[in-house]
Amino acid sequence: MTPIEEIAHILQTAGVERYGEQRVTQLQHALQCAAHAEAAGSSADLITAALLHDIGHLVDTHFEGAAEAGIDRRHEDIGCGYLGKWFGPDVTGPIQLHVAAKRYLCAVDGGYFDGLSPGSVRSLELQGGAFDGPESAAFLERPHAREAIRLRRWDDLAKDPAAETEDLDYYLGFAQLALRNGRAA
Fold first, then answer.
1. Burial class for 70, CB neighbours closer than 10 Å (0-12, 13-18, 19+)
2. Which of 6, 20, 114, 157: CA 20 to 30 A from 123?
3. What confidence tier does 31 reach under pLDDT thresholds 50, 70, 90?
């Protein structure tokens, strides 16, 4: 099975589950996030990061019920590790930092926290809460932080049960390009 076939299989099987308390599936959420990235004129790498940012939830065999038990499974690290065997840091970096980007946005954008879903508020607590001033400054210095902030904003928008997107194969075309980019690096 090629990497793209393996990713497609995961998204088409585990991705059919609902995305937390949202009225969309994990796959719909992924497709919507990728659609927002494409609409913003992003690179194939960032579109792929948007598509796959939550794959850590889908490949983690201990994910179910963890948040309710007060455990942060660090899906961003799991996803980054899983995808790192195929993709370069322009894909995995924003994925690894998209949770930290939420913590950053809660610290610097006064209205951001108010727009979070109840599930995102719960997970924010498990993830360490909003950054303080020095943590926010340090976050911005990290490679891929700005891309992670963009990804985080698309992540927040990608929960619309009525949204229409291209299909999975369409976005996997960007992943195929990103796969080639990662191998060349």
1. exposed
2. 6
3. very high
Cα separation, 184 vs 150, whole angstroms: 25
Q: What's the burial of 82, exposed, middle or buried (CB within 10 Å: 0-12/13-18/19+)?
A: buried
Asked if residue 71 lies in contact with residue 83, where contact means CB atoms within 8 angstroms, the answer is: no
pLDDT tens-digit map of 71-126: 778 899 999 999 999 999 999 999 999 999 999 999 999 899 999 888 888 889 99
pLDDT band (50, 70, 90) for residue 19: low
Written as one letter, the residue type at 126 is L
> Cβ distance 28 to 54 under 8 Å?
no
* Other Cβ atoms within 10 Å of 26 Cβ, number: 21
3-state secondary structure of 18: strand
Structure tokens at 150: 């963009």
Domains recognised in the chain with CATH numbers:
3-184 (1.10.3210.10)
Q: Which amino acid is at 56?
A: G
Instruction: Evaluate if pTM is beyond 0.90.
Output: yes
